[in-house]
Write a structure and sequence with these properties.
Blueprint lengths: L29 E2 L29 E4 L3 E7 L3 H6 L14 E6 L5 E8 L2 H7 L4 E6 L3 H12 L5 E4 L6 E6 L11 E6 L8 E6 L15 H11 L36 H10 L4 E9 L16 E4 L13 E7 L2 E7 H4 L17 E4 L6 E6 L1 E2 H11 L14
Protein name: Aminomethyltransferase folate-binding domain-containing protein
Organism: Macroventuria anomochaeta
Length: 401
């Protein structure tokens, strides 16, 4: 079985691999509407909780990710084989890790993945090789998918034992305190603001966590994701249901719109040509005040988000979004952008108006949890940069405040 050699270690001078956009990080300020006096904290961000007992994201930390597993691909046909299956571009000169997705024939997401490739691995395997990182609950399904498409390709497909190599996340100042000697490979996470969240491959018991660092619970990693609107895994990106643009795989540099044919390409390219993505995953603030349950409650995924009337009750009519996940007051939602935000997506004007409130009804005629979508400035800039050329010329984008 092809597994990482014990001789493959990172030197103390390893340069952190970051996407090109990460070289000049965008500001991570955001807006929900025009700021109100006293609405911002001293660090320029809004508080995510209105209750003392709600879980709070930490400013800095490191956490192992046992819910992520690795599959090793190696052999002389690996590049050609993988190129026809994923949304990002694979070529023999690509020596740094990247984000991508597997799609079905209808262009729906099967798996969101990181493809780990780095010089030491290539030197060890001799041919272009990689580790594919996927949700642990889907590792066997992905392995079977790869086997089914292998046919006569000279590619070895093997699940990497957990005790041989694992995935970690680090955020904030903690990334300055890790033991660089223990890092096998690393990547600045391209799904967020590209300045605060990193991903690391390391061997178990390799001493990655340096002196003075405290290992955090994996829940803290999920909070970091939710703050930045990052969906991950089949619970948040339903297999064979979600579209790649709706879960922001395009904005995370996970789709190469210029590459050749791959499974699911047709719908993806057609959407790019139309220039219209009406729904996207966004971070949301949840308000559990009043009679709306406890702030530690978990809302049911798929619950409709609707506009509230003047009294704070749910209005009848079309849903403006759907709840995806939450931990306390920090959550993810699939939002209709022109209904829940001031963003302009198409020539037709949306229904959004300043001061509109949204909420989720918990149970039939139950209490209402208010939902406030969050627009990070870097998110708007990235969406505008990637999709501006595809939009009609008379399309006017709302500029950030």
């Amino acid at each position: 079985m092809a597994t990482p050699s014990t001789s493959v270690t990172a030197s103390s001078t390893r340069i952190r691999r970051t996407p090109q956009l990460a070289q000049q990080p965008l500001r991570s300020t955001y807006r929900t509407s025009k700021p109100e006096p006293g609405d911002l904290q001293s660090n320029g961000t809004r508080p995510y909780s209105t209750a003392d007992n709600a879980p709070q994201p930490t400013d800095s930390g490191i956490a192992p990710l046992p819910h992520r597993r690795l599959i090793c691909l190696s052999g002389p046909d690996t590049v050609k084989f993988l190129q026809g299956l994923i949304t990002n571009n694979v070529h023999a000169d690509r020596h740094e890790p990247f984000f991508a997705a597997f799609l079905d024939s209808r262009g729906r997401v099967l798996w969101d993945v990181f493809v780990w490739v780095y010089p030491e691995l290539l030197a060890e395997k001799e041919n272009w090789s990689c580790y594919i990182e996927v949700d642990a609950s889907e590792v066997e399904a992905l392995r079977k998918h790869l086997k089914r498409h292998k046919l006569r390709s000279k590619v070895a497909i093997e699940v990497v034992p957990e005790e041989e190599l694992g995935v970690w996340a680090v955020w904030g100042q903690a990334q300055e305190g890790i033991n660089r000697q223990a890092v096998v490979a690393d990547l600045c996470d391209p799904r967020g603001d590209q300045s605060t969240l990193w991903r690391i491959l390391a061997k178990p018991n390799s001493g990655l966590v340096g002196d003075g660092l405290e290992t955090r619970d994996v829940q803290q990693y999920h909070l970091q994701r939710y703050k930045q609107g990052i969906a991950e895994g089949p619970q948040e990106i339903p297999r064979e249901s979600a579209l790649p643009m709706e879960v922001n795989i395009d904005l995370a540099q996970g789709i190469d719109f210029k590459k050749g044919c791959y499974v699911g390409q047709e719908l993806t390219i057609r959407t790019k040509h139309t220039g219209v993505v009406r729904k996207r995953i966004l971070p949301v603030q949840l308000d559990f005040t009043g009679d709306a349950l406890s702030s530690t409650s978990t809302l049911e995924a798929g619950t409709d988000i609707k506009q509230l009337d003047e009294t704070g009750a749910i209005k009848k009519g079309r849903a403006t979004g759907k709840c995806v996940a939450n931990i306390g007051n920090v959550g993810l939602a699939l939002c209709r952008l022109e209904m829940m935000t001031p963003m302009r997506i198409s020539v037709e004007s949306g229904s959004y108006k300043e001061g509109i409130e949204f909420g989720i009804s918990v149970g039939e005629n139950g209490p209402v949890v208010k939902v406030k979508p969050v627009l990070h400035q870097w998110f708007e800039e990235r969406e505008r940069t990637l999709w501006a050329k595809s939009k009609p010329k008379n399309m006017v984008h709302l500029q950030p405040e």
